[in-house]
UniProtKB/TrEMBL annotation:
GO biological process, one term: proteolysis
Keywords on record: Hydrolase, Metal-binding, Protease
Record GO terms (molecular function): metal ion binding; peptidase activity
Domain of life: Bacteria
Lineage: Bacteria, Pseudomonadati, Bacteroidota, Sphingobacteriia, Sphingobacteriales
UniProt keyword Metal-binding present: yes
Annotated Peptidase M20 dimerisation domain residues: 193-351
UniProt xrefs under NCBIfam families: PRK07907.1, PRK08201.1, PRK09104.1
InterPro entries cross-referenced by the UniProt entry: Cyt/Met_Dipeptidase, Peptidase_M20, Peptidase_M20_dimer
Name used for this protein in its record: Acetylornithine deacetylase/succinyl-diaminopimelate desuccinylase-like protein
Length: 455
C-alpha cells in the first residue's frame, strides 16, 4: 500500500494531465458528426496502453466505433482479469447549462468538470494508470486484458458481435468494471446488480397535417393530448405500472435481502435537498433504494410535438412523440417487455389516432455474486484503501454488456465503481472528484493482488 501511495504521489500531476487530454476528445457516440473524434480517442487510448506496457494492443474495427484491446499475460497458470470500460460519452446538451465547456476539463473545488469525467473516462483510465503502476513497480500479480469500447452509451450492439467472435481471446476468470457509483467516500460500497433496459420511441398521429387550432380545434383529437393521456395511464394511483403482465417475471427480494439493502445509509432530506424537490415519488410500498435498485420502472425521457419555437403559434399538431425507457430487474427480459409495452400501447390508443412503436436498444438485468473470490478481493481492496468494509448495493443504471459477458463467455462481473450519484452523469456539469480518481488508482492494484492471492 505504501509503495502504491508513493507512486501516485510522485506522478500525481501527470496522472491528472493525461486524464485531461483524454477528456478533451468529444467522443460522443450518439451523433455521427463526432466520428473523427471517436477514432482519435481510440488511438489515444491504444497509445496509452502501449506506453503503460501492454502487449497485443489493437484497435479492433467494428461496423460502428472501434474497440481498443490490450493485454499483459505474465503466466498462463495465473488468473486473468478482463477489464471493461467505455471511451464514448453522452451528448453534452444542453450546452448553455454548463458552467465551463464540456470538453475543456476544469477543476473547481477539487472536482474535475467535463463530459465523461466520471462516465466513464475518469473511471476506466484509473485502470490504465493502475496497470502502469503495477508494471513500473513490478507488482502485476495476474494476467490482465483490457477491452475499452466506444458504443456503450448507444447500446453496445457491435461489442456484442465482437464478444461472440472473440471468445478465445477474451477468456478470463472475472470481468472488472469501474462504471458505477458508490454511496459516498465515507460509505464505500460495491454494486451487486444492474437493471436491464428496454428503450423505445412512440409516435401518435392524428390528422394528416398540422391544423389551425381554432378552425379545427374541438372537433379533431389532438395527438399531443392523447399521447399525454396514454402515458399518464401507464402508472396507477400507487405508481404501479399498468401494462398487463409487466411484473409477472419479477423476482421479489427476500425479507433478509430487503433489510440488507435498506441498512445502507440514506438521508432522505439530503436526497431531496440535492435535487431541490419537496417530496419523493415512487411505487407504493418500497423504499428509495428498492425503487431504484430492485424494482422495474417506466420513464418518459423526452416528449414533443407541435410548435415548440419562440412565441405562440396556434396549431393542432399532426403528430406527437415520446422516448420511453423501462428499467428491468431479474427475471424480466428486454424483448418480452418491449412486446408487452407495444401490445398495450396499441390496445389503449383511441380510434381517433394511429400509433407506431419503434424499439431502440435494450439490455438484460444482472445480479453479480457476492460469494465469489473476485467479490471478496474487491471487498478486501476497498476495506484496505478506505479503512472500511464496502456496503453491497444495487445499481439503478444499466450496462447491457454485463449480462452478455455471462451468457457468451460464462464470466461473472465485479462492479467496482468509484463514481457518486451526484456526479451528474448524462447531465450538464458532469464531474469526478480528483480524490476519487487517485483513490481508484490506489485501490485497483489491491484488487489484483487479492484476486491473485485468493484464487
Ligand atoms: N455507467 C452507466 C451506467 C450506470 C451508472 C450504472 C451509474 C450504475 C450507476 C452507463 O454508461 C450508462 O449510462 N448506461 C445506460 C445504458 C445504455 C444502454 C445507454 C443507462 O443506464 O442509461
Ligand atoms: Mn458508463
Ligand atoms: Mn452512461
Amino acid at each position: 500500500m505504501e509503495q502504491i501511495k508513493q507512486y501516485v504521489e510522485q506522478h500525481k500531476q501527470r496522472l491528472l494531465d493525461e486524464l485531461f487530454d483524454l477528456l478533451r476528445f468529444p467522443s460522443v457516440s450518439a451523433d455521427p458528426k463526432y466520428k473523427q473524434d471517436i477514432l482519435k480517442t481510440a488511438d489515444f487510448v491504444a497509445q496509452k496502453f502501449r506506453d503503460a506496457g501492454a502487449d497485443k494492443v489493437e484497435i479492433c474495427e467494428t461496423a460502428g466505433n472501434p474497440i481498443v484491446y490490450g493485454e499483459k499475460i505474465i503466466d498462463t497458470s495465473k488468473p486473468t482479469v478482463l477489464v471493461y470500460g467505455h471511451y464514448d460519452v453522452q451528448p453534452p446538451d444542453p450546452l448553455e447549462l454548463w458552467k465551463t465547456p464540456p470538453f475543456e476539463p476544469t477543476i473547481r473545488d477539487g472536482k474535475i468538470y467535463a463530459r465523461g469525467a466520471c462516465d466513464d473516462k475518469g473511471q476506466f483510465y484509473m485502470h490504465v494508470k493502475a496497470f502502469e503502476l503495477m508494471m513500473q513497480t513490478n507488482t502485476l500479480p495476474c494476467n490482465i486484458k483490457f477491452m475499452i469500447e466506444g458504443e456503450e452509451e448507444v447500446g453496445s450492439s457491435n461489442l456484442s458481435i465482437f464478444v461472440k467472435a472473440n471468445k478465445e481471446r477474451l477468456k478470463a476468470d472475472v470481468v472488472l468494471i469501474s462504471d458505477t457509483s458508490m454511496i459516498s467516500m465515507e460509505h464505500p460500497s460495491l454494486e451487486t446488480g444492474l437493471r436491464g433496459l428496454s428503450y423505445l420511441e412512440v409516435e401518435v398521429t392524428g390528422p394528416n397535417r398540422d391544423l389551425h387550432s381554432g378552425v379545427y380545434g374541438g372537433a379533431v383529437a389532438n395527438p399531443a393530448t392523447i399521447l399525454a393521456k396514454m402515458i399518464a395511464s401507464m402508472h396507477d394511483e400507487n405508481n404501479h405500472i399498468t401494462i398487463p403482465g409487466f411484473y409477472d417475471k419479477v423476482i421479489d427480494l427476500t425479507e433478509a435481502e430487503r433489510k440488507a439493502l435498506n441498512d445502507a445509509p440514506y438521508d432522505e432530506s439530503e436526497y431531496k435537498k440535492d435535487l431541490e424537490i419537496d417530496e419523493l415519488w415512487g411505487e407504493k410500498g418500497y423504499t428509495t433504494f428498492e425503487r431504484t435498485g430492485t424494482r422495474p420502472t417506466l420513464e418518459v425521457n423526452g416528449i414533443w410535438g407541435g410548435y415548440i419555437g419562440e412565441g405562440a403559434k396556434t396549431v393542432l399538431p399532426s403528430k406527437a412523440h415520446a422516448k420511453i425507457s423501462m428499467r428491468l430487474v431479474p427475471n424480466q427480459s428486454s424483448e418480452e417487455i418491449t412486446k408487452l409495452f407495444t401490445d398495450h400501447f396499441e390496445k389503449i390508443a383511441p380510434k381517433s389516432v394511429k400509433v407506431k412503436v419503434t424499439p431502440h436498444h435494450g439490455g438484460e438485468p444482472v445480479v453479480t455474486p457476492t460469494d465469489s473470490v473476485a467479490y471478496r478481493a474487491a471487498q478486501k481492496a476497498i476495506a484496505e484503501s478506505f479503512g472500511k468494509d464496502p456496503i453491497p448495493t444495487r445499481g439503478g443504471g444499466s450496462i447491457p454488456i454485463v449480462a452478455l459477458f455471462e451468457a457468451e463467455l460464462g464470466i461473472k462481473t465485479v462492479l467496482m465503481g468509484f463514481g457518486l450519484d451526484s456526479d451528474a452523469l448524462h447531465s450538464p456539469n458532469e464531474k469526478y472528484d480528483i480524490y476519487n480518481y487517485y483513490k481508484g488508482i490506489e485501490t485497483i492494484p489491491l484488487f489484483h493482488k487479492y484476486f491473485a492471492e485468493l484464487s
